[in-house]
Design brief:
Radius of gyration: 19 Å
Distance between the termini: 63 Å
Structural class: alpha/beta
Order of helices and strands: EEEHEEHEHHHEHEHEEHHEE
Oligomer: single chain
Shape: globular
Number of helices: 9
Helix content: 25-40%
Largest sheet: 6 strands, mixed
Number of strands: 12
Length: about 280
């Protein structure tokens, strides 16, 4: 089994989407009647201003937040009717506020990714150990396997958390702000890892605040505003000066990166009214 040929234990690329999905918290409705399909085998970035429903949508896709109406569809079936173990074999989530016990090492954290495959009848196996080692290799953490998480840099720690989701060996990865609080170098490090996972066959959905990074590293963009999808498609096709202004209240000049064609934002100026 090699990194280039190894696939998830499901041996397929499941589909993920929503149908007339409504989500909210308490009395507050955040998303209402949203229908979307996630392109399989691609990196999809969900972007938009604070409070637009990005993380709420991701929570719904991950079955963390139950729908008020409508459905999240995994392989065409309502995800909330499926067994937890079945979902965990197809979909892994890295939440924004992930935390681990003090003193836990990188390898010990990654081993938690194998929990969905363990039971009274199936304990730790050579295959589990092999997959953990493959996750260490995929995230370039072999030399840090025995290092405590709290001794790592921010970028290394985030790679360790992503490695845990890789060890879950699912074809679908959901990442909530994987570059949050990282400096530029570590952001690039994590996003390059996301691209590499996609090249190896993973479907990745990530919530990300930085629009230029989303444009550079994502194949597919979902732009949200006030709980609705207002644009969707390839970044080079949908990102315009008008879209940036509508999403963020920012006027800018839009250029395109040589070679990739990724949109680049220059000369941004906020036009939002601030209280006096």
């Amino acid at each position: 089994m090699t990194d280039d040929t190894r696939k998830g234990e499901t041996d397929c690329c499941p589909t993920l989407g929503t149908r007339e999905l409504a989500l909210g918290y308490g009395e507050r409705k955040v998303i209402n009647g949203l229908t979307v399909e996630i392109p399989p085998g691609k990196v999809t970035a969900i972007v938009g201003p604070n409070g637009c429903g990005k993380s709420t949508l991701l929570a719904g896709l991950a079955r963390i937040l139950a729908p008020r109406s409508g459905a999240v569809l995994l392989d065409g079936r309502d995800i909330n009717t499926l067994a937890t173990r079945e979902v965990a074999h197809k979909l892994a989530l890295l939440p924004q506020d992930a935390s681990a016990p003090d003193g836990l090492t990188v390898e010990e954290l990654i081993q938690f990714g194998r929990q969905p495959y363990r039971s009274l009848m199936r304990q730790w196996s050579p295959k589990d150990a092999e997959i953990v080692q493959a996750a260490l290799h995929a995230t370039q953490l072999q030399a840090l396997a025995d290092r405590p998480l709290d001794a790592l840099s921010g970028g290394q720690r985030q790679r360790a958390w992503i490695a845990m989701t890789v060890a879950q060996d699912t074809p679908l990865l959901l990442l909530d702000e994987p570059t949050s609080a990282l400096d530029l170098g570590h952001q690039i490090e994590v996003l390059e890892l996301v691209r590499e996972l996609s090249r190896k066959g993973k479907t990745v959905v990530m919530v990300i605040h930085d629009l230029p990074s989303a444009c550079r590293y994502a194949d597919h963009l979902i732009a949200m505003h006030q709980g609705e999808i207002i644009a969707e498609g390839r970044p080079a096709d949908i990102v315009t000066e008008a879209l940036v202004e509508r999403l963020y209240g920012v006027r800018c000049t839009l250029l395109h990166e040589p070679g990739t064609g990724a949109p680049l934002i220059v000369n941004p100026v906020s036009i939002r009214h601030t209280p006096e």
